[in-house]
Amino acid sequence: MKINLLICDIFEDLMPFEDTGYVKMIQHLFTDVDPTLTFEVFEAFAGDLPKTIDKKAIYVISASRANPCSEIPWLVHLKQFIKELHHNEAKIIGISFGHQLIAHTLGGRIENAIVGLALGIREVQLCHTEASNYFSGRKLNLFHYHQQQVVALPPTSELFAYSKFCPIEGFTIGKHIITIQGHPEYSEKYIRFLLKNQLHEVPEILRIKSVESLKQKNNGSELASYMLNFLTQNN
Predict the structure, then answer these.
(1) Is 234 helix (H, G, I), strand (E, B) or coil?
(2) CA-to-CA separations, 106 to 26, 52, 102, 148, 205, in angstroms, rounded
(3) Kind and range of the H or E run holding 25
(4) CB count, 10 Å around CB of 225?
(5) Bridge-partner residues for 161, per DSSP?
(6) Is residue 211 part of a domain?
(7) How many domains does the chain have?
(8) Is 173 a member of any domain?
(9) 22, 36, 61, 177: which could join 98 in a potential S-S bond, CB 3.0 to 4.6 Å?
(10) What is the domain-level CATH number for residue 45?
(11) Cα–Cα distance measured from residue 24 to residue 31, given in angstroms and rounded to the nearest whole number
(12) What is the pTM of this model?
């Protein structure tokens, strides 16, 4: 199976080592589940998008520091492409910013979270009954780092995941779109690096709570497996 990675930010100033890259993080997330996967990378943030739609492929829309409500040129083009993917019922995974961007593009609403900045691991509840086959009690722990969140679902979508902090953690549309607010691609090592070396503006109390949360197991790999299965089991 092929995955088309629509990269919305490479976070080059936030990577701990030269041989670590955001693209590799996403690739490792999915190849840990299925080593036979192949990838084609598109730098969406530079206006690079697929010329045609491949309904056999999965399109992954990545995280980004951009504002999903912005009308900067590359985002305008990406939003139009998302609409075309949806119209053709092409398979899409939205991660963090990708989750927000899909919601905004297809008629949902994004706002800054009243509860403030999210950072660290938090427990997420899953709505799908079949999620019980992947997660005990339909719950998972996932890395988060975001200020904005989806506050209104797009038309025809169904809530997929929620938490006390973020009522719309993820949603699905039909059998071809699934999104998540958290970061299944992040590792504990990377979060610790950010907390120690990059996120200097984070209040100390939030930093302490975030470090404490890392004692919990992250279920990013299990979520990747579930998302892939959701998109392919009936196709």
Answers:
(1) coil
(2) 24, 20, 6, 17, 37
(3) helix 22-31
(4) 18
(5) 126, 170
(6) no
(7) 1
(8) yes
(9) 61
(10) 3.40.50.880
(11) 10
(12) 0.92
